[in-house]
Write a structure and sequence with these properties.
34% of the residues lie in helices and 29% in strands. The chain is of the alpha/beta class. A hairpin with a 4-residue loop joins strand 9 and strand 10. The structure holds S-adenosylmethionine. S-adenosylmethionine binds next to helix 1 and helix 4.
Length: 229
Amino acid sequence: MSNDAIQEQIAYYRARAGEYDEWFYRIGRYDHGEENNRRWFDEAAEAMRTLHGLGPVDEALELACGTGIWTRELLTVSKHITAIDASPEVIEVNRNKLQSSKVEYQQADLFAWKPAREYDLVVFAFWLSHVPPERLDEFLGKVYRATRSGGTIFMVDSRSEQTSAAKDTPIQMRGDSVQVRRLKDGREFNIVKVFYEPDRLREQLAAAGFDADVKLTEKYFIYATGTKR
Ligand SMILES: C[S@@+](CC[C@H](N)C(=O)[O-])C[C@H]1O[C@@H](n2cnc3c(N)ncnc32)[C@H](O)[C@@H]1O
């Protein structure tokens, strides 16, 4: 996957910063009715409880922190968070939302970023699916280097489920790992999207040096915890 694809993905999330939360909070074109919405939030709460169970820790690193949905949860279990994202726009939303002196933001492209230190807990929510498959080992190698020995990782991501997506843009793949996304104003972008199955994810995390426990929620999410060997 070319560098252009990585840049298009960054451009997509920059342009989407102001409407991103509508997806997670099931608003507008992401509102799939009371039953689906309730299930979504129940299943998200299951993953959040798992994250809460990994604390308390002193130092956490959040990769692709976005608008702060998971940063907020991480704040309840970590004394300090380093939160990295490529988009200055989403970092601004996150900063304004949380207004916390415990969070230190860094704007960086994770494909160029190199970990400079180790953390007790490393978190990446709805990010791994956007890592091109041929760069997965490289990315997980960075996660390994950023986690202290015996430290933990937490990830959560999407299962392939049409009621996850915008009602006007059903999941539409180009090949195995490229998805077409549309903003409210109609602009279209190609982004990387890989839907993981538990066995494959567990193997990938094991190969990267983590003893991992991977779970599916009933309909919407896959989440994992891992301990660095
Ligand atoms: C699906 S969102 C997830 C955001 C947040 N973790 C959450 O779950 O709400 C993906 C995030 O990755 C960021 N991103 C995209 N490409 C990136 C890159 N190359 N380096 C760092 N962040 C990137 C986007 O700006 C966006 O905030």
